[in-house]
Amino acid sequence: MPESPDPKKLKSTGVFAPFEWMIAARYLRAKRQESFISVISLFSLIGIALGVATLIIVMSVMNGFKVELLKSILGLSGHVTIQSQMGNMTDYDAVTARIMKVPGVVRATPVVDGQVMASQNDSNLGVIARGIRAQDLGKLAVAEKLRAGSLAYFDGDDAVIVGAGLAAKLGVRVNGEITLIAPKGNVTPFGTTPRVKTYHVISVFRIGNTLFDNNYIFMPLGEAQNYFDLGNKVSGVEVMINDPEADLAMLPALGKAAGPMMRTVPWQDLNSAFFEAIQVESNVMFLILSLIILVAALNIVSGLIMLVKDKSADIAILRTMGATRGAVMRIFFISGASIGVSGTVIGFAIGVLFCANIENIRQGLSKLTGTTLFDPTVYFLSRMPAEMAPMQVASVVVMALVLSFLATLYPSWRAARLDPVEALRYE
Q1: Among the four residues 1, 97, 314, 361, which has the most C-beta atoms within 10 Å?
Q2: What are phi and psi of 346, to 5 degrees?
Q3: Is 164:205 a contact under the CB 8 Å cutoff?
Q4: Containing domain of residue 385, as a range?
Q5: Where are the beta strands (DSSP E) in 13-155?
Q6: Alpha-carbon distance values, 5 to 11, 163, 323, 417 (Å)
């Protein structure tokens, strides 16, 4: 039984009076005979800390995964693609000029896309060959990953730039050669023959997204038109705008500028299934991992109920000395809320530190276990991203605090309703 507090202090029974904090802190420091209750409280604190940290880490990784993929995909593909309803586009120069006059448009790039077979050193891989002007390629994020001065040689009919992953698979090096085979070739009396041509590799690029590093080849726009036998046509015009989230609002203006026979395709439509899958996974992971915090909150409930039962005599003495039911309720509320707040703060700190060093941790675990964690060929990224969104982190912290506070209400109410006469009858 704890020492009886000063009766003069009991008269100060305002909200969260000093004696309430003193008694709550004393209850949290359990004695030897109350060690089981202390263990339950410790597990509750650890559970909340792990739940908060895990939620912050997982949500940050999922958010970073989405941001990095969006950045790399839109950095090469554009926010809106303008295509002709009649097939390939002929008057693309005029369309590009009109689109550039639309407010909010940063860049408009005519491109030619075609599927080819890349062959070298007895290896063959299906890839996408993209035709683009040298000045337009210089404005893309991939230009920062090229050899210095290589864009000056991105001209003529035999120069190509190859993704680093593709070059490694085929054993191709800079200044080497690569053979491209197009399925639709020349028509002969014996049928259609594939078009085969060997190109000089002037540079390689690595943007960190294996979707592009392993599957893309850039060639000059004029050569791509000749190679795919398009004449003076392109596959479409890719448009980059200031705010990718505002592309849907700009579709009417872009469609009007492009012309009546054109259609506008936003990046959401081109990658909708992919990013919707990421969003669904993120929501499911949030719900599943929230159960960790919920279980820890239930441990707080059980621990406080046992504490109330063990301290029933102490509660009765406090009541007979003048402590109100509200004071008793606040004492146990402080005890339970202290566990929840401490666990939340510890979990927040662990989550933030983990996210700040997640790539170093991944590499360390990979070396320690001898396995490849976050395989780039599966996740399309060469490094594990972690993008902490303030609103997401705040929602995790608020949820943990709310569950912790709610968990203390019933045990605190039960302590406040304890009858002093019944509690002291057998003492």
Answers
A1: 314
A2: -65, -45
A3: yes
A4: 7-69+275-424
A5: 80-84, 105-120, 123-132
A6: 11, 75, 10, 21
